[in-house]
Amino acid sequence: MSYLDRDEDTICAMATATGLAGISVIRICGPYCESIVRKCCSFLPDQLESHRVYYGWFKSHLEKEDIDEVLVTYFTEGRSFTGDHTFEISCHGSPYITSRIIQELVQSGGRIAEKGEFTYRAFSNGRIDLSQAESVLSLIESHSKKSSQLALRQLKGELSYKFEDIENRLLNLAAHLEVNIDYSEEEILQVGKDKIAPPLEEIKKRVEGLLQTFNSGRIIKEGFFVALVGAPNVGKSSLLNMFVEKDKAIVTEIEGTTRDVIEEKVMIDGVSITFFDTAGLRITEDKVEKIGIEKTVRTIEEADLVCWVCDAWNLKAKEELSEFVSSHLKAQNRSKLVVIRNKIDLNETSSDDGFDQGIASHIFKTSAKLNTGKIEFFDFLKDLVSFEFSENSAQLSHLRQFELLSKIYNSLDSTLNSLHKELSPELIIFELQESIVAIHEILGKEFDDQVMDRVFKQFCLGK
Ligand SMILES: Nc1nc2c(ncn2[C@@H]2O[C@H](COP(=O)(O)OP(=O)(O)OP(=O)(O)O)[C@@H](O)[C@H]2O)c(=O)[nH]1
Ligand SMILES: [Mg+2]
Predict the structure, then answer these.
(1) From ligand 2's centre to the CA of 260, what distance in Å?
(2) pLDDT (tens digit, 9 = 90+) per residue, 69-109?
(3) 281 Cβ below 6 A of ligand 1
(4) Where do the H-state alpha helices sit in 192-316?
(5) Domains (ranges, CATH) in the chain?
(6) Is 286 in the pocket of ligand 1 (CB under 6 A)?
(7) The pTM is what?
(8) Is the CB of 90 under 6 A from ligand 1?
(9) Does the C-beta of 376 come closer than 6 Å to ligand 1?
(10) At what angle do helices 130-141 and 399-420 cross, to 10 degrees?
């Protein structure tokens, strides 16, 4: 079914997580929700007041038997999350009771909501734009103080305001362009370059500024990923345990102890940092270990920071590091490499000789045995994740928005090129239109089912 065809349905779903709980909340919204709820909640008065809670017994509408003692909250049209008439039924948190209540609502004319359909309604009723819908998702998924703050600010419209500013500037420019076509001496249409290029440059600068916030926005939203990699037995698992202050990974003196990737989160300055302990890299015929090493390679790709761990006393460490870099780090990933020289307790006099600062940006010395070196390493991590998070900064954190904004950036770039080459005004207007379509897609002013699926199918049921 198309997204546009289904707004007339009355939809219902659990708004809280499934499973045993003190209470659960079931939400029902849409044009017929009042008559549907009344069939099972005869205690409701004739005149309902918005945002009021009513107490009574929810009954099966056919058998008239009591199902649960409930509290029903009513939200009138235009004053609910979705913008539609809505009821929230708070009942006891038993999966049996909640499924019975939902069953009754469906038998009375409701339909089970699809993933994200409540948020979709809020979008289609114009209560939020598409980028705000995405921030609802971020808010639900937020796992740290900063990620929830970021999502809340996006929901309040800080990012939408920036997108709308870009949209307005593009629309003004397009309008200006239409009337600012000059006749040259040869009676050929030309664009007044001097009037168009500066505002176009300004929009490009603003788009670029937003694009630059994506990495920090993404890290605040999803967390920062640190991979611990290196040869077997250098102490990667011991370091993981030291960093997360838990006996999380198995440590033994046997080479190849860790097979699977083991992850654990800690919070640093309100940002979630996930450490990944990996299988030691070496040539092996062992089937299980081989799979583990393949996973290590994938973890390196996905990490924000790669810590290559080695024995502090290893005299061949420099060669091994070069070998690691050339076989496992793509050129664009080399800036995310640091070295941890572990087991310094075994070699107090070890020097930094043999380590080229050019290969790794930082070198840390640790002893997982003596629990030393963690403070210096964590201070470094704090600097990496302590982004500018001032009151006024809007940050991009969704890949969809980033991709569309990159498209706008490229399209503005080619518009400017065409302008400088004095190409035909039709072409310039056409290129500018591409940017306008993309900014409309970000805000949800232009969409198709594919875009809707990409945004709303990520939601959990009931949201
Ligand atoms: N002296 C000393 N021993 C350490 C230190 N860190 C780890 N070890 C020892 O080194 C051995 C290997 O440690 P692990 O943490 O299992 O090493 P790993 O890199 O995870 O090894 P694999 O999982 O096999 O790749 C164990 O016997 C640890 O007790 C350290 O800082 N000092
Ligand atoms: Mg290990």
Answers:
(1) 9
(2) 999 999 999 999 999 999 999 999 999 999 999 999 999 99
(3) no
(4) 193-212, 214-222, 236-244, 287-302
(5) 3-128 (3.30.1360.120), 132-213+395-444 (1.20.120.430), 221-385 (3.40.50.300)
(6) no
(7) 0.72
(8) no
(9) no
(10) 140
